[in-house]
# Entry
Amino acid sequence: MINFVLDIFSVMFQINMRDTHEVPFAMPLLMACMVGGLVGFSIVRMIGNEKEEERKAREAQEVLDGRRTK
# Structure
């Protein structure tokens, strides 16, 4: 899997990501991209869930207030 990802980055950046003399920071760069992607994905998921929970709470409050019947 790591070879596959390194191949993709090698093509994108037009440098050999496996060559330690050419790119001494290849592994930290790769890990930073992966960690950043995971953190970004998690934040987007939390924001999406927060809006869904707010909508459900608003609907429940409307039912309790009698404004809407199910």
In short: Residues 25-70 form one domain.
